[in-house]
Each structure stands twice: as structure tokens, then as C-alpha cells.
Write a structure and sequence with these properties.
Blueprint (H helix, E strand, L loop, with lengths): L1 H18 L5 H5 L9 H17 L13 H4 L24 H20 L3 H34 L26 E4 L2 E5 L15 E5 L2 E4 L5 H9 L11 H10 L7 E4 L2 E6 L2 E4 L11 H10 L7 H11 L33 E7 L25 E5 L15 E3 L8 E2 L3 E3 L5
Parallel strand pairs: 8-11
Antiparallel strand pairs: 1-4, 2-3, 4-12, 5-6, 6-7, 8-9, 9-10
Helix pairs in contact: 1-6, 3-5, 3-6, 8-9
The structure holds fe (ii) ion.
The site of fe (ii) ion has 4 residues, from helix 6.
Length: 424
């Protein structure tokens, strides 16, 4: 087990650094808004995780590589100690980027050495923490991209993170028309099963009652969202939740995040630069409130997370790996490939109508790592699937992502559902 994990560790650490290859030094250090963190902080924090939960826990009288890092790079673990405030991470001018890389490589060296000497119960214990740390770093790989995108979007020069892959520039013919896929009422099993890795919030596996519903076989597109806008979607309070309406007004929303209007023509900012809106690609960077308002406008609703999971498991469509050399860092239009349900994974995270709450029988782990998921089960909504920024191997049908309902800087879109009783 440790041999495989050791390889996965090295691959994951290298991939974080691959993501940072196109960056200028400023990109590592500037923080654009309170929810985002500088890239340098992500690189150091994921390293802090391995130092704190693997190295320090496997050695008595462990001496930290730099005692200041214990609070500077602690995100939210109260059991570990003080944390430097998230909203002020962009004020940290030290350690430098080079020092953060030194820290990473020193932890890598010590950790791989530490793994070589482990056996028995200790190897098993460390193996579980190491696996969690690998998946934690993968989550931060997506955050590196989403936080960088927000930072770049503040710059009217529209910086390009990486150019579009060549096939992305060719027009894609024959876009798929949406169709409804029907599912009967019944009791279904929800939650992770088997020995492969999952987060604690995906368990325990349990029964859920679903009422008959229909779900669209693809994501809502940019073109469809523009129809909603043309029909006054952002000006009609009857379409919005009360909190959504006040949030929209306070934050001045009139289109998805990163959409730019110029003389009546809309473009959008992407990690491949500013580009024309493509009506056939999935709409992205919308909040729960916008997804919910659109669904109400269209006479449908968002799926529950149980409906989404049941559909994904029934479809037997597994997430596909993204070859990093040809990575598209923006959702792509769907080519019609028949009747199968599409775009479950790898384009945008999909808002569900489900609040993020514990499954029946859920218990957070004891100790600091129990703070990983459970304490955030309040005032957030679940998103399912995965996005173009999600690293390979990080998605699965039972995965529960979660964000507050006004969050827009993640790659978030949605698909529609309706009750069968509502179908005329
Ligand atoms: Fe983290």
C-alpha cells in the first residue's frame, strides 16, 4: 500500500508544480479577494498538511522545519493551533516563493524517507493520512486554478494562463439538444462503498427515497442562459429566492461571473484568455441562486444530490482522466453522441438543491482531521460531478463538493430536473 501511495504522492506533488509553470512571480503572491488565496500559500499549505499530519505525528519530539509556518499555513484546524487570517494571506511577503519551494522539497525528502522505514499498524495509520493528504492537495490544485482565474480576471489585459489546445479553436458541429431522462420512484442506496478512497462526508452508505423524476441529459448551456437573461431573468424578483435577490442586488449581478459586455456583444474571460461566448458550451461560474432562478424560470428545478448520484451510478459513466498536456481549462460544447446522459463529470461542478448536511449516522473522525469536513455542514449547498479544473483521479459519483450559495468563482454550472407529476 505504501509503495503505491508513495508514487501517488510524488505524482501529485509534481502536478501542483506543473500547474504553476506558466506563472509570473506576482501570480504566486497576490490575493484577489477574501475567499481566494495566493498560489504560494496553496503550495505551502498543502506541504504544511503533510508536515503536520504525517511527519510530526510519526516522530516523537518532532521539530518543525520552520515554527512560524505552523500558524501561517494552518487553514482552519483549531486543534492544531492559531491560524493566520484567510483574508490577509495576500499581505504575507515572506516566505518568498523560492523559500516555499524549498519547504516543499524538504518535506518531500523527509516524507519519502519516513515512509521507507514504516511497517505494521503504523504504516497503515500513516497510509490513511497520506492518502487524505494527496486528495487534499488535489483539491488545492483546483483552487490554485480558480483563485488564479479570479486574479487574472481583475486585469483588463486579460492574461492567458495557458493557450487553448489546437482542437479547442475549431468549431464543433452538431451540438446536442437536451432530452429528459426518466427515473422511477423507489428506495436507492446513497454513499460510498468499497475500499477505494473517499472523504468521510460520503459515508455512511444509506437508503434514500426518490420520487419519480426526470433529469436533463446534458448541462444547461450558455445559449439557454442568455435566453433567461433576455427574458429579464436578472430583473424579475418572482424568479429568485429572497436571499438570492438581495445578494444579486448587493453584488450587482447581471450575468454569470467573467462575462464581459462590450457594445452589446458578450465575451467571457477564461484561463485561455478572453473569448467570444459559445452558446453550445455549458454555462459556468453561476451561483446557486442564479441556477435556482434559471430553473424556476424554465419550469423545472435543480436535482437533489441523491437524484444526481442515483443517475450517475445508474449511467455507469466514470470520470475520464484529463491528459495534462492537452488540458482544456474551460468547459467545452457537447457533441451529440446519442441518448446517454452526458457531462456528469469533467466540465462543471453541478449545483444541487441539497444543503450540505451529514448523512444519517455520520460521525466526524476524532482529532484534528475530524475538522476536515464535518464542521462545514452549515449554510452551504452540495455540488456534484467535477470540472475542467479537477485533477484526474479526484472525481467519483459519490463525491460531495460544497460551497455557500453565493459562490461564483468555482467552475460551477447545473442541469435541470423536474417532477414527473409536473410533466404535462
Ligand atoms: Fe486545505
Amino acid at each position: 500500500m505504501l509503495e503505491n501511495l508513495s508514487r501517488a504522492y510524488s505524482t501529485t506533488r509534481r502536478f501542483s508544480e506543473f500547474l504553476c509553470e506558466p506563472l509570473e512571480i506576482e501570480d504566486y503572491v497576490i490575493q484577489s479577494m477574501p475567499d481566494a488565496s495566493p498560489t504560494r500559500w496553496h503550495l505551502a499549505h498543502t506541504t504544511w498538511f503533510f508536515e503536520t499530519f504525517v511527519l510530526a505525528s510519526s516522530e516523537t519530539n518532532y521539530r518543525p522545519i520552520n515554527p512560524h509556518f505552523q500558524s501561517l499555513f494552518n487553514s482552519y484546524y483549531n486543534s492544531v493551533g492559531e491560524q493566520f487570517p484567510r483574508s490577509r494571506r495576500g499581505l504575507l511577503t515572506r516566505p518568498t516563493v523560492a523559500e516555499v519551494y524549498e519547504y516543499r522539497h524538504e518535506v518531500d525528502r523527509r516524507l519519502l524517507h519516513c515512509l521507507e522505514g514504516l511497517s505494521g499498524d503504523e504504516a497503515e495509520r500513516i497510509g490513511h493520512v497520506l492518502e487524505l493528504g494527496i486528495h487534499h492537495e488535489q483539491q488545492h490544485q483546483e483552487l490554485i486554478l480558480t483563485d488564479l482565474k479570479y486574479l487574472y480576471s481583475c486585469n483588463p489585459l486579460w492574461p492567458v494562463y495557458r493557450p487553448s489546445p489546437p482542437e479547442d479553436r475549431r468549431p464543433r458541429a452538431n451540438p446536442k439538444q437536451a432530452a429528459w431522462s426518466a427515473h422511477r420512484s423507489g428506495i436507492v442506496e446513497i454513499g460510498h462503498r468499497g475500499e477505494a478512497f473517499c472523504y468521510d462526508n460520503e459515508q455512511p452508505r444509506h437508503n434514500a427515497l426518490l420520487h419519480a423524476f426526470e433529469i436533463q441529459d446534458r448541462l444547461v448551456t450558455v445559449g439557454e442562459f442568455m435566453e433567461f437573461m433576455r427574458d429579464g431573468g436578472y430583473r424579475r424578483p418572482d424568479l429568485w429566492l429572497s436571499l438570492g435577490w438581495s445578494t444579486k442586488n448587493e453584488q450587482g449581478w447581471s450575468a454569470p461571473l467573467y462575462w464581459v459586455e462590450n457594445d452589446g456583444l458578450w465575451s467571457q474571460f477564461t484561463l485561455h484568455g478572453l473569448r467570444e461566448l459559445n452558446p453550445h458550451e455549458p454555462v459556468c461560474h453561476v451561483s446557486y441562486f442564479e441556477a435556482d432562478a434559471f430553473a424556476r424560470w424554465s419550469g423545472s428545478r435543480l436535482p437533489t444530490e441523491q437524484e444526481w448520484e442515483h443517475v450517475a451510478v445508474s449511467a455507469q459513466r466514470e470520470p475520464q482522466p484529463h491528459p495534462k498536456e492537452t488540458a482544456h481549462f474551460h468547459p467545452r460544447p457537447l457533441i451529440d453522441d446519442g441518448d446517454r446522459i452526458a457531462q456528469l463529470f469533467g466540465e462543471v461542478w453541478q449545483w444541487t438543491s441539497s444543503p450540505y448536511t451529514p448523512y444519517p449516522g455520520y460521525r466526524a473522525a476524532m482529532g484534528a482531521l475530524g475538522e476536515y469536513n464535518g464542521k462545514f455542514m452549515c449554510n452551504q449547498y452540495v455540488l456534484r460531478g467535477s470540472s475542467r479544473a479537477t485533477p484526474s483521479g479526484h472525481a467519483r459519483p459519490t463525491y460531495r463538493n460544497f460551497f455557500p450559495p453565493d459562490a461564483r468563482w468555482q467552475f460551477s454550472g447545473f442541469r435541470l430536473t423536474r417532477d414527473v407529476s409536473a410533466v404535462s
